[in-house]
Every structure is written in C-alpha cells, then in structure tokens.
C-alpha cells in the first residue's frame, strides 16, 4: 500500500510541475502536455492495483478468520467423561394396613432322660375380635300375657309404663323402642326390677321380678 501511495504522490507532483505558467518555455509546456496526457492512465493503473491489493487482503483476512473459528478436533475418548451408571434402590412404600402383632411364647426346656431339650417357640397371632358381635336374642317359647293380664297384686307393684316409640325389624340391631321417654335396648333395665327382654312385632317383652309380660306397641299401662 505504501508503494502505491508514493506512486500517486509522485504522479501528482509531476502533474503540478508540468502545469505551464508565464515563465515556462513553449517546449517545456509541450513536454508537460505529453506527460499530462499519460498521467490519467497511470492513475487508472494505480487504482486497479489498489483494488486488486484490497481484494487480496480481504481474501487473506477471511481465510484467517475461518481458520481461527474452526474448532480443534478432540478425540471422543479424551473429551467425553466416563459415564457412570448408579442405581438407587426402589423406594419402599409403607403398607397402609397395620401388621398383626405376633406374640412369641418363650421356649421352655423339656427334660428327657439326662438331656434337656428346648422346644421351639410357638408363634401365635392375635386374632382380632369380630367387629359386630350380636347380642343373644331372646326366644319366646310360649304365649306371653299382656301387662293387664298379670295378677292384681303383681300389677299393683309395677310402675306405670308408656311406650312412646316402637320400631321392629327382622334385624335385631335395627329394632328400637322408647318407654317412659327413655330409649332402651334388649338386656337393659328400666328399674332394678323391670328389664326389657325382646322387641317383637306386637310390642316389647319385659320381665318384672321373674314374670314376663307383653307391653303392646304404642300403648300405656297403669297399675
């Protein structure tokens, strides 16, 4: 590039020197015209050379940038880290149901002759009791008199009775009675001497001092 600039400067100086003035002889002026006629070609040639040099410099610069940007090849064995596979144990989910407690009986030594032999421990599982144990049902084995059919002296000692509610079902657990404003189930007592034995379709079977009688459904009894 410096050579081209020097050439352009020299050509410009020669052109200025060749410009005629009042003191320039005619022959020198003619020679200057010839050199001036050649100067445009020199400028064109210099410009072309400059363009060519610029193109070459641009191509070299692009090649250099491409070479710099190219990745350095590395071997897969050296660059890739060694893969390690680790297995984790599967998470155990706790059982939602409660385990049955097992009670182990201690082993007892058994003497046989001169040797003592220990029996293997016997494992017994605690069986859960049934959730709904039904109460024993009262069985009526014969006709039961009504309350007003009892002897007079016994009736006089009985308290007044009024059945406020009566629900009977073939399922004993669904049966229900209310006597004297109190809910009562078979096996329970109204007074120390009066006990409910069963609930039937006709009413409630009660027992007073060992004597059974029937209180009809939704009825009242006055001694």
Question: How does this model look, in words?
Answer:
Helix content is 31%, strand content 23%. With 223 residues, the protein is an alpha+beta fold. The protein has a domain at 152-216. The protein is rod-shaped and about 170 Å long. It starts with a helix and ends with a strand. Residues 76-94 and 124-136 have low confidence and may be disordered.
Write the layout of secondary structure elements.
Elements (H helix, E strand, L loop, with lengths): L1 H16 L8 H44 L6 H4 L22 E3 L4 E4 L2 E4 L4 E3 L26 H6 L3 E7 L8 E4 L2 E3 L4 E3 L2 E6 L3 E6 L2 E6 L3 E2 L2
Antiparallel strand pairs: 1-4, 2-3, 5-6, 5-12, 6-7, 8-9, 9-10, 10-11
Helix pairs in contact: 1-2
Characteristics of this structure?
12 strands, rod-shaped, transmembrane, 4-stranded antiparallel β-sheet, 31% helix, single chain, 223 residues, alpha+beta
Q: What is the percentage of strand-forming residues?
A: 15-25%
The biggest beta sheet, please?
Answer: 4 strands, antiparallel
Shape: rod-shaped
CA distance, first residue to last residue:
143 Å
Q: What fraction, in percent, of the residue positions are helical?
A: 25-40%
Number of helices: 4
- What is the CA-atom radius of gyration, in angstroms? 64 Å
Give a count of the beta strands, DSSP E runs of length 2 or more: 12
Secondary-structure element order, N to C: HHHEEEEHEEEEEEEE
Structural class: alpha+beta
Overall average residue pLDDT = 73
| Uncertain segments | 76-94, 124-136
User: Going across the major beta sheet, what is the strand order?
Assistant: 7-6-5-12
């Amino acid at each position: 590039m410096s050579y081209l600039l020097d050439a352009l400067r020299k050509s410009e100086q020669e052109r200025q020197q060749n410009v005629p003035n009042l003191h320039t002889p005619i022959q020198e002026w003619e020679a200057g015209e010839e050199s001036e006629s050649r100067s445009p070609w020199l400028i064109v040639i210099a410009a072309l050379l400059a363009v060519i040099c610029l193109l070459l410099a641009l191509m070299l610069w692009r090649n250099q940038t491409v070479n710099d940007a190219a990745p350095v090849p590395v071997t897969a064995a050296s660059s890739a880290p060694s893969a390690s596979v680790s297995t984790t144990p599967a998470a155990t989910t706790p059982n939602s149901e409660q385990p049955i407690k097992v009670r182990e009986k201690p082993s007892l030594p058994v003497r046989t002759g001169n040797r003592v032999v220990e029996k293997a421990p016997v494992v017994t599982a605690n069986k859960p009791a049934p959730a709904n144990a039904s109460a024993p049902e009262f069985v009526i084995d014969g006709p039961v008199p009504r309350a007003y059919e009892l002897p007079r002296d016994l009736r006089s000692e009985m308290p007044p009775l009024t059945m406020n509610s009566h629900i009977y079902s073939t399922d004993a657990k669904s049966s229900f009675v209310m006597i004297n404003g109190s809910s009562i189930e078979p096996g329970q007592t109204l007074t120390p001497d009066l006990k409910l034995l069963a609930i039937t379709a006709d009413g409630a079977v009660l027992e007073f001092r060992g004597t059974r009688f029937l209180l009809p459904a939704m009825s009242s009894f006055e001694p």
